[in-house]
Amino acid sequence: MIIASMTEGKIMALDYGLRRIGIAMSDPLQITVFPFKTIESVTSKQNAETISKIAGDNGVCEIVIGLPVNVSGSEGKMAKIVRDFADELKVAANLPISLINEVFSSNEATEILVQKGIKFNHKDKGLKDRVSAALILQRYLEKNALYCGRL
Q: 3-class SS at 15?
């Protein structure tokens, strides 16, 4: 069980990609997580503006972005892109931004969808991105609950 954090409000998570950005949200008590929507990625600035608006419209108090770290722990080109985007989003949204290691989140999302018998390649290419964002947010909430001694 995850207990609400000190900050009240929804937390948004992003699975940032060059083609699509998966978005997940928590409830206002930060107990449950659900895939929210997928947006098509355009420019970094436009992405930041769109996500900032979504955050404002939904009472988001913090944004978590999955950081693509290699299994070795090193960071590649995509991690730099995500870090730069996080800096831009922090200014646009005027909200706290946290980065969390997203290693294997896309693989886990695919596995979950396959186990559920959900075909996502043709009907909804963004479904995997939303589920990945939900996994990133779930890890973040669990990590904070453990760190704060709430589990």
A: strand
